[in-house]
Amino acid sequence: MMKFLFTSLGTAFLAASTVLFAQEEIEGNDVVLDDRPIAQVGARLAYNSQRGPILGLSYASRKFFGRDAFFRFSADISEHDKLFGINFRNDEIFGRSPKFGLRLYHNETRATSSFGFDTARIGIEPRLTWALGGNTSLTGRVLFSRDRVSNVDATNSALIMADIGTRMRTSIGARLNYGLPGEGKGQAYISADVAKTSRDTNYFKLLAGVSKQRELNNGSIIVSGKLSGGMLQMAGDASSSIGDRFFLGQGSIRGFGFGGFGPRDLNTANNSPLGGNSFVALRTDIQMPYLFGEEATAVPGVFMDLGSIWDLNSVVGGPNGTQIVDDSLNLRASFGISIQLNTAVGPISVSLAHAAKKERNDQTQILMLSYNRSF
Question: Residues 60, 157: one domain?
Fold first, then answer.
């Protein structure tokens, strides 16, 4: 299958190089020239505080093999991870509804000082999406994946050692997206999945979120907020896997590193982050685009975040599986300032955060920096 996909990618790239425009027939047998590009090849250089320097490559076509189908291949490579993805979408294969989509991915991560193990994931996910009117849609999906945990340090937590090896997983799920009415931009979603693994474990995973953005005072102030939460429920007496539990970081609560808060095994050399079966996070921002003038390239702002991650099926950790881990719900909170800069070399985002509510062994991150430049 992978050989076919990469052969298809090469064929589509050749077609995009030789055909620059698409012709579309209209009434009266007239033909018009569609000057939109059939395909795009891109590269990007990026940096963020969580992953470090990132090199990205992508190829996208809106007329894959001459049909009205969208295809995209992407690759992101950093010091500690490699992320590869293929997305295909055909809106007309079943008529006007549902729309068919297919996602394939292959992700690898290498051990770091915080996460003392390697992971590899490969999966395929076909999906169907129904438009329900307005900005509301319902997507059904099936995921087949193979996950592997390896190169686990001998001093790591027994709760991670239990996940060493390869695990197959099959899940069936659905996601409902709903556009919120009223002024400003708003979106809500709820997602649910039921899964079975090759290790005779079954689980139910639920995610939900709502976001809202509104402009005040003729756009001089932009207020936005995002509330999200999730839960993982195992069937019977089974314990959740490190690959299924939730991990949070600066993407949810600024001022904390990825996996920097929540349950961790303090009985190990690296205080192993374990993730949690439940989480909740709230992000709020106030941005002032015209504070430095209407033509300014800098957009300052302030923010406040709070949330928590908690709950494990088993709390018996330590290298030998004999010591207790704290998985209780402890609130974290942060506040700070941010600035977005539109520069000649690409957009740069900088945030300074203060972890106002934290636990003693949390990993905090005061400065957060991200940069992205596409070619």
Answer: no
Instruction: Give the separation between CA 179 and CA 189, rounded to whole angstroms.
Output: 9
> Same domain for 135 and 261?
yes
- Read off the pTM: 0.84
pLDDT digits (tens, 9 = 90+) for 160-190: 999 999 999 999 999 999 999 888 889 999 9
Residues 225 and 137 in one domain: yes
Domain that holds residue 66: 1-77
Contact, 63 vs 22, CB < 8 A? yes
Residues 71 and 152 in one domain: no
Q: Are residues 54 and 199 in the same domain?
A: no
In a domain, 91, yes or no: no
| CA-closest candidate to residue 276, choices 225, 327, 349 | 327
**Does residue 58 form part of some domain?**
yes
C-beta separation of 243 from 195 below 8 A: no
SS3 365: coil
Torsion angle defined by CA atoms of residues 230, 235, 239 and 243, in that order, rounded to the nearest 10 degrees: -50
Residues 223 and 213: beta-carbon distance below 8 Å: yes
Rounded CA separation 316/323 (Å) = 5
Q: Is residue 196 part of a domain?
A: yes
| 52 lies in the same domain as 200 | no
> How are beta strands 81-90 and 93-96 bridged, if at all?
unpaired
Q: Give the number of residues written for the chain.
A: 375
Each residue of 208-246: pLDDT tens digit? 999 999 999 999 999 999 999 999 999 999 999 999 999
DSSP string, 82-106: EEEEEEEEESSEEEESSEEEEEEEE
Contact 166, 147 (CB under 8 A): yes
- How many whole angstroms from its chain centre is CA 32? 39
Tokens of 174: 């659905």
The CATH number of whichever domain residue 218 belongs to comes to 2.40.160.50
Q: Which two tokens stand for residue 366?
A: 């005061």
